[in-house]
Design a protein that fits this description.
This protein is an alpha/beta fold and 404 residues long. It has helices spanning 4-10, 19-32, 36-46, 54-64, 73-87, 111-119, 164-178, 191-200, 210-225, 229-240, 245-258, 263-270, 279-282, 294-305, 313-352, 354-363, 366-378, 391-401; strands at 92-97, 103-109, 123-129, 139-145, 151-159, 184-187, 205-208. The protein folds into 3 domains: 4-64, no CATH class; 73-209 and 292-321, Nucleotidyltransferase, domain 5 (2-Layer Sandwich); 211-279. It has 18 helices and 7 strands. Strands 1-2-5-4-3-6-7 form a 7-stranded mixed sheet, sandwiched between helices. It is globular, with a radius of gyration of 28 Å.
C-alpha cells in the first residue's frame, strides 16, 4: 500500500534537487573529483535539512563530470610537449611510434627538472606504476631529494611495456637529457631494470628496496620453512644488517646451512645482488639514508588520487605539472619560513660561537643551519656534568660488545 507522503518523497516525478545544491554538486564534481561518499558528507553538513537519495546524487554527479577529450589524445600531448621544447630548447622530449603510428614510448624533462637532476643526482629513486591512464601505459617516475630533504620530481616516462629494452630506452633518455648518471639509483629490484642499469649506468651503484625484498620472502620461502619461517626472517635481517663484510659472509653461510630448503632461492635471487641490499656494502656509500622506494611510491599515490584508470595522457601530464608546481611553491615557502626562524636565533650562535656560526652559514643549507642554531640556543638550558669514563670498559665494549 502506497502512502501519499511516500509518493511525494520517493517518486521520481516529485523528487527534485534544489538549484543551490546542484551548484554545490557541480563545484565538488568538476573541481574536487570527489567520490559520492565524500560529497554526501559535505552536502549533509552544508544542507542539513535537505535529503538526497544516492541515485539522484549519482545522476547529478554524472551530469557534471568533465568529459575527457580522448580524440587524438597522444598527438595532442606530443604537440604540447613539442611546443614547450620550441619555446624553450632546454626542454628534453623523446618519443617512439610503432608501425601504425601509435605512441609506444614517451619521455620528457623540463628545464627546471634537468636543473634539479644535475644538482641532486647523488641519489635518484625510480618506480613504475600502473592504472594512471586509459591506455594502460606504465608510468615511470624519477625522484631526487633536495637540500630541504623533500622529494622532487625530475623526470617522467610512459612506455607500452616493462621490458629490458624499454628500461634501457628510458635510462638512455635521462643520460641524453642531463649528460649525467646518478651516483646511487634506488629501485624495487625488478630484474628488467637491473639488467638495463648495468648496461646504461656504468658507474652507478644500485640500491634495492629492502621493503620489496621483505615482501618477496614469504612468497618464495614461507611454504618451504613452515613454522621455521619467523626464525628465518630474524636470521636473514640479522645478516642483512651486518655492518662488517666478514660478519655478513659468516652469517650468510650459517643462514644457508641452517635453512637448506631455501638455499636455492637465496643463492639465485638475493646473493648475486647482495651489494645492493646488504648494509655491509650499502653503508659505505652516500644514500641519504634511503633504504626503500617508499618516497616514489608515495608520490605515485598522490598522482593517482588526481587520476583514474580512464584518464587521458593529457590529464596525466597536467597532474604531473600541477604536482611539480606545488613542490616549487612549497619549497619557496619552506625556505622563507626556515630563514625567518634562523633570524630569530642567530644572536645566540653569533654571540657565543661566532666563528662556528660563520663557518655554518657558509656551508650549510637553510634547513640544516636552522636546526644547528636551534641546538646552540637549547644548549643554554642544559646542566652539564663531567663523566670520567673507565677506559678499559669502553675498550671492551667497543671491540667485543659492539654488534656489527
Amino acid at each position: 500500500m502506497l502512502f501519499p507522503a511516500d509518493t511525494e518523497k520517493y517518486s521520481s516525478k516529485y523528487r527534485c534537487i534544489p538549484n543551490e545544491v546542484l551548484k554545490e554538486i557541480q563545484f565538488l564534481t568538476e573541481h574536487g573529483n570527489l567520490p559520492i561518499t565524500t560529497q554526501r558528507k559535505l552536502l549533509k553538513a552544508k544542507f542539513s535539512t535537505i535529503s538526497i537519495l544516492d541515485c539522484d546524487l549519482t545522476n547529478a554527479m554524472q551530469k557534471f563530470k568533465v568529459k575527457s577529450d580522448v580524440a587524438n589524445d597522444a598527438s595532442r600531448l606530443l604537440k604540447i610537449l613539442i611546443e614547450h621544447k620550441s619555446n624553450d630548447p632546454e626542454w628534453f622530449v623523446e618519443f617512439q611510434l610503432d608501425q601504425d603510428n601509435r605512441l609506444t614510448r614517451l619521455f620528457w624533462m623540463s628545464l627546471a627538472q634537468i636543473t634539479l637532476w644535475l644538482e641532486y643526482h647523488d641519489v635518484i629513486l625510480n618506480d613504475n606504476t600502473a592504472k594512471t591512464n586509459r591506455y594502460q601505459m606504465p608510468l615511470s617516475l624519477f625522484l631526487v631529494i633536495d637540500n630541504n630533504t623533500k622529494s622532487r620530481l625530475v623526470a617522467q616516462a610512459l612506455v607500452s611495456d616493462e621490458t629490458v629494452e624499454s628500461y634501457k630506452w628510458i635510462l638512455e633518455c635521462t643520460k641524453n637529457a642531463t649528460m649525467t648518471e646518478p651516483l646511487v639509483f634506488v629501485t624495487d629490484a625488478d630484474l628488467a631494470i637491473d639488467a638495463a642499469i648495468v648496461q646504461i649506468y656504468e658507474a652507478t651503484h644500485s640500491i634495492h628496496c629492502i621493503f620489496h625484498i621483505s615482501e618477496n620472502l614469504p612468497k618464495n620461502v614461507k611454504s618451504k620453512l613452515s613454522d621455521q619461517y619467523e626464525n628465518f626472517v630474524q636470521s636473514f635481517f640479522s645478516c642483512r644488517n651486518s655492518l662488517c663484510e666478514e660478519l655478513f659472509y659468516e652469517r650468510w653461510s650459517k643462514l644457508i646451512e641452517k635453512y637448506p630448503s631455501v638455499k636455492d632461492y637465496l643463492m639465485r635471487a638475493l646473493y648475486p645482488s647482495r651489494q645492493a641490499w646488504a648494509r655491509a656494502f650499502t653503508s659505505k656509500i652516500f644514500t641519504v639514508g634511503i633504504q626503500t622506494t617508499s618516497r616514489v611510491e608515495g608520490y605515485n599515490n598522490i598522482i593517482k588520487r588526481e587520476l583514474s584508470v580512464n584518464s587521458t595522457l593529457c590529464g596525466l601530464a597536467d597532474a604531473l605539472d600541477a604536482q611539480f608546481e606545488h613542490e616549487v611553491q612549497w619549497n619557496h615557502f619552506f625556505e622563507y619560513r626556515t630563514l625567518s626562524n634562523c633570524m630569530g636565533i642567530t644572536t645566540i650562535s653569533q654571540d657565543l660561537f661566532p666563528e662556528v656560526d660563520k663557518i655554518m652559514n657558509k656551508y650549510l643549507t637553510p634547513q640544516i643551519l636552522s636546526a644547528e642554531r636551534m641546538e646552540m640556543a637549547q644548549c643554554l638550558y642544559f646542566v652539564p656534568s663531567k663523566v670520567e669514563p673507565n677506559i678499559a670498559e669502553v675498550f671492551s665494549v667497543f671491540f667485543y660488545g659492539l654488534k656489527c
